[in-house]
UniProtKB/TrEMBL annotation:
This is Crossover junction endodeoxyribonuclease RuvC. NCBIfam families: ruvC. Gene3D superfamilies: Ribonuclease H-like superfamily/Ribonuclease H. Its EC number is 3.1.21.10. SUPFAM superfamilies: Ribonuclease H-like. It holds the Pfam family RuvC. PROSITE patterns: RUVC. It catalyses: Endonucleolytic cleavage at a junction such as a reciprocal single-stranded crossover between two homologous DNA duplexes (Holliday junction). Mg(2+) 2 binds at E68. The active site is at D7, E68, D141. Its main location: cytoplasm. The gene is ruvC.
Length: 189
């Protein structure tokens, strides 16, 4: 599976593409950071992030895009910009028919390090080790984008199985309720 990982942000937006193989094997294909000047208008900054992400999608043809879910930050303005950057990237992926998944920072940390509260240094060290890189990816946004892609490669099969099981359980529930309704009609009839 080819996955594009995104650590969204307006000042720095980490982008990566990895490919998973048998077992837990993951290979990095590309990694980078899109930077936008803080003095530019918000709309122009979002357009720059979207344009870069679209170019990556068109070049690398990922099957899925994994984006960090923004759930809380101390600075509301930063959180809004991060969420908006993630939103324009999700939109670009959806327009191309690419599946989008959002993962929380703790899910990513747990998947990559085994500890949902690992620090950035631990995440970077494990990303470097998992991918067999000679040098740790820098800045942290690049390492985080790779961690998101790795997380998705490892979690997606389980998420798909859980969704299929849930859909199957829903079908069984509907058939049961239908049979029950038919039996009630017979009893009343």
């Amino acid at each position: 599976m080819r996955v594009m990982g995104v650590d969204p942000g307006l000042t720095r937006c980490g982008l990566s593409v990895v490919e998973s193989g048998p077992g837990r094997k993951v290979v990095a294909l590309d990694v980078g950071v899109v930077r936008t000047p803080p003095e530019d208008e918000l709309a122009l900054r979002l357009m720059a992030v979207a344009d870069a992400a679209e170019e990556w999608m068109d070049t690398h043809k990922p099957e899925a895009v994994a984006i960090e879910r923004v759930f809380a930050q101390h600075n509301v303005r930063t959180a809004m910009g991060t969420a908006q950057a993630g939103g324009v990237i999700a939109l670009a992926a959806a327009r191309r028919g690419i599946r989008v998944a959002f993962h929380t920072p703790s899910e990513v940390k747990a998947a990559v390090t085994g500890n949902g509260s690992a620090d950035k240094a631990q995440v970077t060290a494990m990303v470097t080790r998992i991918l067999g890189l000679q040098v740790a990816p820098k800045p942290a946004d690049a390492a985080d984008a790779l961690a998101l892609a790795i997380c998705h490669c490892w979690r997606a099969p389980l998420m798909d199985r859980m969704a299929a099981a849930q859909a199957q359980a829903e079908q069984v529930r509907r058939r049961y309720e239908q049979r029950l309704a038919e039996q009630r009609k017979v009893v009343r009839g």
